[in-house]
Amino acid sequence: MVATAVARCGRGSLSLLSEMGRMMVFLISTFSWMVRPPFRLLQVLKQVHFIGVKSLFVIVLTGSFTGMVLGLQGYYSLRKFGAEGLLGSAVALSMIRELGPVLSALMVTGRAGSAMTAEIGIMRITEQIDALDTMAVSPMQYLIAPKVLASVLIMPLLGSIFDVIGIYGGYLVGVELLGVSSGSYTSSMESSVEWKDVYGGILKSLSFGLIVAWVCTYKGYHTTMSAEGLGKATTEAVVLSSVLILIWDYFLTSVLM
Questions:
Q1: How confident is the model over 29-67, as pLDDT tens digits?
Q2: How many Å apart are CA 116 and CA 251, to the nearest integer?
Q3: Do 237 and 215 touch, CB atoms closer than 8 A?
Q4: CB within 10 Å: which end of the chain, N or C, has fewer?
Q5: Which range has the worst mean pLDDT, 145-154, 170-179, 213-222?
């Protein structure tokens, strides 16, 4: 029994290491094709529209209600200490440093990441990727690299929009609903938010964009040739991307503190 358990543990560890190695080779190959001509600018713009523009509604909706919840909870927490005037600082720092980059990345993972996995997976199952190879067109350059580049470029912008909408949502609840002074809300925000906070949020959004596109395209590219395999790959892509976003957020936060 002990030998069997050790053998299973060893096989699982080797399988995990092999998968990690394949993912790293996939990422390095994507970067190498990204800098080789011909450059697929039109494909990048299409992915910017798909990942960015089509995600605006869910980003605005999630950001506004996140900010309003922060304003409501922050007010009742700060009121116990007579510090309602610091509500703007609490909302702004929470949105810029943590909630904006993380929640926007999770929303994009659920909306665009799953679609990327399904799209590439269907192309794999229907042998369209093999057809690209036959026509001497690199699937990595034509399909994967534009998605990764567009995700890295557009994610900081989506995170910034999330931050602005969330801060305004906190303003509506704190100032318009609960009666916090408008001047104290904005002045506390201006005095507490520093460039390193903004820079840290942008850096997180860049890395989250890379994680989402990398994991989701990899899972779609290496899906098994069945409908069941495609569904499994899509689920794994969303779950793994979300988990990696949260783990990487912790490490980045510990470094940028």
A1: 888 888 888 888 888 999 999 999 999 999 999 999 999
A2: 27
A3: yes
A4: N
A5: 170-179
* 220-231 pLDDT tens trace: 998 887 778 888
Average pLDDT over every residue of 180-190: 83
| Whole-number Å distance between alpha carbons of 44 and 8 | 43
Tally of domains within the chain: 1
Helices (DSSP H) in 95-226: which residue ranges?
Answer: 100-108, 114-125, 128-134, 139, 145-171, 182-192, 195-221
Structural contact between residues 45 and 154, judged by C-beta atoms closer than 8 angstroms: no
Is residue 66 situated within a structural domain? yes
Would you tell me how many other CB atoms lie within 10 Å of the CB of residue 16? 10
| C-alpha span between 172 and 179 (Å, rounded) | 10
Can you read off the two tokens belonging to residue 4?
Answer: 């069997």
Close Cβ partners of 248 (under 8 Å, ≥ 6 residues apart) = 207, 208, 211
CB atoms within 10 A of CB 185: 24
- pTM score above 0.85: yes
- Yes or no: say if 193 and 93 are a contact pair by the CB < 8 Å rule: yes
In a domain, 170, yes or no: yes
- Whether residue 20 is contained in a domain is answered as no
Instruction: Identify whether 134 is part of a domain.
Output: yes
What is the DSSP code (8-state) at residue 255? H
Q: What is the pLDDT of residues 141-158, one digit of tens each?
A: 888 999 999 999 999 999
